[in-house]
Every structure is written in structure tokens, then in C-alpha cells.
Amino acid sequence: MTMIPQPRQGLRAWLLTDTPTSRTHARLSALYQSWLSFRGNQMAMFGLGILVFLVFVAAFAPLLAPHDPFTQNLLARLRPPGSAGYLLGSDSLGRDILSRLIYGSRITLYIVTLVAIVAPVVGLFVGTVAGYTGGWVDIVLMRITDIFLAFPRLVLALAFVAALGAGIENAVLAISLTAWPPYARIARAETLTMRNSDFIHAVRLQGAGPLRIIIRHIWPLCISSLVVRVTLDMAGIILAAAGLGFLGLGAQPPTPEWGAMISDGRRFILDHWWVATMPGLAIFTVSLAFNLLGDGLRDVLDPKEGSQ
Amino acid sequence: MLDDGKRPLVRVRNLKMHFPIYRGVMRRQVGEVRAVDGISFDIYAGETLGLVGESGCGKSSAGRAILRLYDVTDGEISIDGNEIAHLAGDELRRLRPEMQMIFQDPQASLNPRMTVAAIIAEPLDEHQTLSRNARMERVFELMDAVGLNRNFANRYPHEFSGGQRQRIGIARALALNPKFIVCDEPIAALDVSIQAQVVNLLEDLQEKFGLTYLFISHDLSMVRHLATRVAVMYLGKVVELADSAQLYGDPKHPYTEALLSAVPEPDPTLENTRERIILEGDVPSPSDPPEGCNFCTRCPRVMDICRRESPEFKQLEDGRFVACHLM
CA-to-CA distance for B117 and B135, rounded, in angstroms? Predict the structure, then answer.
């Protein structure tokens, strides 16, 4: 009678092994251990849950939405939440708010994802090059960064959108342009602490050039602090996108963007509170989820905390 | 300074490493730290040259300048016939495999995000085009050579003890078959019980691969055990260079005497008769060295000339070098 190990136990043992058999194995194993410690953080798991739900909703929006988000029904305008067929009420043109929120999640995710890809990559590149090269390259790049940091974020984004024209793509571009400087600062600070460390000296002694050192040795070590910062910034990005939408410079009507929806509801906020409140709650929930996730990730990824 | 018969692998002449000091808003250069201020010596193939001196005397700066981790201020360094003091870019990079370094802090010298195999294979990726399997085979070979278990190849550095980490650093240094290795206090950060293991490993490897070491340390007994010849540094200059036995048996320079008198004696009766020469005052700042001999502010046998003229680094009849007006 031999015990047949369950595949799940086998996978777990494989992931928790002391003697990884390949580089990929070692990496997966380290990842799994991070996941185990992340899982212990209930608030972070709660945030992650909301975000997984958001992605699910965005992916299956046509199946989940009870109405078409664009169909107007002037007979059913400004229905309160809970009325027949309109779970979260309807707006001034009789469109179902729930359906619009569901479709709006796609736009929010689109903006957040694009900004989260563009801004940190630009910041990482500028910061590490400035930090590693030093000298006048550092001075020039950091003064440019300072110029961007000298303006309030939303005002700068407004200026960019005004120059580029309104629309989601331009909003993404404008938010990215205002979001990269803090990443450049973080990446530069991390690079400065690493630049004179012995392991970089060792790599230089082996004959590696500056580009190789930056890409292979400095980037991987900067990424964890950037990931944490990005996650914590997500809420700000969502708010900036909603702010641009609210001011009519983001997604254009009739696109169901959450900020633009609040802006629509502003006119009826005293008599018909739900029109502005529902998208506001959606923005609040998603921002909170990103913050909770970011806190959890910081605990797991912060290179100064653990020995990972 | 030429000793025929033995071939110098490393030849250092009048090496200077000055670090500028910047102050103020305009970052104007207001002075310089003369970490290494004109040192000259040869290291013969297959020998170990010990480099000793107290903290801050420029030992490590000298080691790092010789390997061109810094841009040297002045002087000549030739390794195996190649003049490298003022090379840059690709020309220098091509010569890198010849010379490697073992660092003091094994933790800080290993990238925390890379596995052991990746760390050891890094120099191979840089200079050789090996297939995946051939590269792994070489990594295993190196791990065997330094006494690391092959099963640990895919672990991260933080999972190892200090001695094992130092072995990883040694394996990495050996990866490109270097001729010359600078050991920058390789045992200072280790437990005493581990120190002997690492030193024995270094000796074995020297024999096996015909390595030449520059062994930087402040552990005088360890240097005595390990080094063929010993150079004593004080405030950026080499004050005495002699065969290990000569130097420890009959130190010529007053600073060497004082330094050696600080080594404890294992025999208690001898220890009681040991006379310590206690030097007065502190080491002067390397950004503002005294006029004349660098040691004149603390020398127990100081003379008038010492405060005016810097002594020449000259060879005595028995082959040793001393920089002192007494000789």
C-alpha cells in the first residue's frame, strides 16, 4: 500500500524545495514564498479580491450588463436605485447606471494599465541612467525631472490634454507624462545606493559595460520598489483620469467613463443623488483596493525588510 | 628594483590615487584625499604579496586602483606585460579576465536577486560563448573547486553562511581563469573558525591554478602565514617591502616595528616580555599629509630631516625596500 501523492501536494513540495533544479524553478519557488507571505495579509487579499472582481467584470461586461450602456430611454430617466430593471437607478438620459459602471470599468482598467506600463518604464530608464552615469547627464536629467515635479499633477495633465486634444489616449499620455518623475527619483536613489556596492564592482571587474550593468543588475533590483510605488499610485492615476473626465477632457460622451458620469450627475446632485454617487463609490472602491494591495505588496517586496 | 630570475607579473610604478573633494553650491574642488600617493612594487608570478597597514592607510584603494575599478590619478600599472593604468572602455574590458578580486564583505559582493549559478556564470556570459550545458558544467566545476555542494547551484545568496558566500565570491573570481587576484581583506568579515578554511582554500587554489595574489589585510599573523613578501603601507605610501621572514624577524622601519609589536604572542611567558611600541596621536588626514616623511608626526625616532624631506623608497643590500631616513 503506497500513498499516491496528490498532484497539488506534489506541486507545493516542488515549489517549496530547498534544492531547486533550475533557474526557473528557483525563481518560481521564490515567487511562491512571496505569495505565501502575501496571503497572510488579509487587507491586501481583500484589495486583490476587489481587483480580480474588477478585471472579471471588465472582461465579461457584455454578459453582465443588464442594459446597453448607450441606449437612452427618456421615459425612464432619473429612476432611483432599486426600481424595476434599474438596480442602481438611471441617469438623466434614462441609461442604466449599473451597465454604464460595468462598461466604465473597461476604460478605467485601460487607462490604469497603460499609465502603469508607460510611466514606470520611462522613470526607471531616466532614473537609472542618471544615477549610474552621474556627472552632467545626471544633472540634466534630474533638472528635467524637477521641472515636471514643480507643477501640480492635475494642472500639468490638463495643460497636456488641452494641447493634445481631449480623448482617452491623450489622457493616458498626459497622465503618464506627469506620473514618471517620482519613479525616476526612486530609481535614481536606488541606483545611487547600488552604484558603489561590491557586487556592481564585481560585475565591472568581469568586464561588463554600463548598459549591461544597468539592465541586468540595476533594473531587477529597482523593480520591486517601483512595483510597490506603482500600486500605491494607481489610486492617484484613477483619480487623475476621473478628474480629467469630470472636467470634460478625458473620455468623451457618451463613453461611460466614471469621472464623466460624476460630472453628468453634478447637475442633479441635490434631487437625484445616486447619479453622481454610484460612479463615485466605484472610484472609491477601486482606489481603496489598489491602496490595500500596494500596502501588502510593500510588506512582501520591500528589499530592505526581508532577505529576499 | 629589478630582481632577475623571477618574472614580475604585476608591476606598479609610482601609482597615485587622489580623490577630489568638492564643496559648496558650485561643487568647486577644494582639495583631494591622497588615498594612494606614489607606490611602487612588483608582484612575481605565483607569489603572494601581503599588503598590511592600519585602517584608512589606503590598502583597499591601492588594490582597487590596481584593478582599475577607479580611474587612477597617475602612475603605471602593468599586468602580464599589458599597461593598463590609463586604458578605458573596450580595451580595458578585454583584459579584465586576467585580473579579478575577492571582496571583504561576501554579502555585499553578491547580487541578492541572482542565484548562485547565475552569479558564477555571469563572467562566462560576458566573455565566452558557451552553450547552456557547457556553461552549467563549468559552473559545477567551479563550485567543486571551491568546495560548494552542486545542489546549492540554484539557491539565493541569503540562504548561505558567510563562509559559503565567500566561496561563491571566490568561484566567481576564478571563472575566467585569472592570473592575478586581489584579495581585499577576504577573511575580515568571517568568523575565526571559518577564516582558516577560507585561507586554506585560497592556498590550495593558488597551488592548483598557479595564481598570484595581492593579499590585503590588517591581520598580521595571517599575512605572515600566507605571504611570500609583505608590503607595509602608511598614509598612502609603502614604507617597507621585504620577504615575509625578513620583515617579521627584523623590521627596519619604525612604523613596521610598532605595527609588529602589536601582534599578540601565543606563548604567555614571551607575551609578558613583549614590548609594545605605542604610537602617539592619530594618523594625519590623507587630505592634508604632513610635510616631509608622512610618519614624522608619530615616529618615536623622528629627526630634523624627517620634517623637511620625504624619504626615498630605496633598496637595502639584502634586497628589501625601506622608505626611512634612518637607513
Answer: 10
